[in-house]
Design goal:
Elements (H helix, E strand, L loop, with lengths): L7 H9 L3 H7 L8 H9 L4 E2 L4 E3 L2 H8 L4 E2 L10 H9 L19 H12 L2 H21 L5 E3 H6 L1 H11 L6 H11 L9 H27 L5 H8 L4 H16 L2 H14 L1 H9 L4 H11 L5 E6 L4 E3 L2 E3 L4 E5 H4 L35 H18 L4 E2 L4 E2 L8 E3 L1 E3 L15
Parallel strand pairs: 2-8
Antiparallel strand pairs: 1-2, 3-5, 4-12, 5-8, 6-7, 9-12, 10-11
Helix pairs in contact: 1-2, 2-3, 7-9, 7-18, 9-13, 10-11, 11-13, 14-18, 16-18
Bound molecules: protoporphyrin IX containing FE.
Amino acid sequence: MSAQAVPRFAMKAFARRGDTLARLMITPSGSSDPYPLIEDLRARGRLTMSSIAWASADHELCRTILRDNRWGVHAIESFEIPHPLRRFAQRTPLPPNPVEPPSMLVIDPPDHTRMRRPVAAAFTPRAIARLRERVASVTEELLAELPAGGSADLVTAYASQVPIAIISEILGFPRSSLPLFLEWGDAMSPLLDMGLPWRTYRHAMKSMRVMDGYLDDHIARLRREPGEDILSSLVRAGELDDRELKATASLLMGAGFETTVNLISNGVVQLLAHPAQLARLREEPELWPNAVEEILRIDAPVQTTARVALSDGVELEGISFRKGHTVVLSLAGANRDPKMFEDPTRFDVARPNAKDHLTFSSGIHVCLGASLARMEGVYALRSLFDRFPNLQRAGRPERRPLFTLHGYSRLPVLLGERATQPAEGLGVS
Ligand code: HEM
């Protein structure tokens, strides 16, 4: 496909004409706050037509579309692309990757069912228990390395390191490859957005090819010497061919890393901005799992997804959609829908229905790593604030300039003194 690379000029033109969805997509969240534009979208109605696609920030409607099998994910690239450019994009086939078939994220049943089943089956209770132990030991190691009394960039030194270690465990990567992994994540995460600058797109493609070669060698190694990791069990099960295995590995890498790093850093920013909420967590630590739901709700690490009508005549909200018509679903907007969440912009770690957010999507593509991400979030955030009770911001955090993935590239902090009590007994299951 490669649609991401192409319609930037069109998107810019629509944004200049005031199209809210185009403005939201083209404005890097690094330089602005997406929420006023999301509220603008909501003010236009439950379902609104923009120059690019239909869009909704309505909780009930987004959830309905996500759970309706008349809507799918395949061929979301059917946005208007000039034909010569489309032909150019089609002439340059790409290696297996998270955003193209056969990645389960972008295929519909029955292929989706076939691709997702073995991966879901590989996340066994035993595999999850191993990962829980790893999350606990990695957070402890990282916290021990942070310079007590000094300063640090929490994204680099902590928030990114926890998910990297866990995904490496899932994929059986040697520790020596972790820096590569960070580099690929950085290069490829913009691929979820449309209207990318050409240079960003080309850089992502280059990284994708390097990663493909790495995965070829790695999967061959796992065939010879399988480990205890989840990718080894997928290789052993033999249900997916090499192309499918590589698409799945790269999806797990992107979906598991680029999102959870944002959950942890968004969480730190929210908690530092709301000291009374942090104090409440110290008094009532059993609220930590709910606090993580509230962080996921109020500042969603994945802000949007989209669905496409799979046939002509799909009726919704009195409109008859034709095959290929696309609706952009603002998950972040749905999470702040006042019809669903009382006083939705208030950060409340004890909010009774925080868990009703759509941050992990819904329906057949609902996040496969949701319980793992929740566990990582609770461990990483609680042990950080337990170990460094006087943690403070030191300057402005910087947002990553992305539309779909929403988090920080830099989060400077003063750590304060290290508390002596061990961060054990976190009560995370
Ligand atoms: C805070 C962290 C995370 C967030 C916010 C998140 C969010 C999402 C969302 C929104 C989707 C579905 C997109 C759609 O419906 O179009 C998704 C799918 C997926 N996620 Fe996550 N995710 C997170 C962590 C993880 C982790 C840790 C893993 C695995 C290690 C993971 C693996 C997957 C996979 C494999 C899919 C594809 C499922 C399918 O298409 O059937 N995610 N995630």
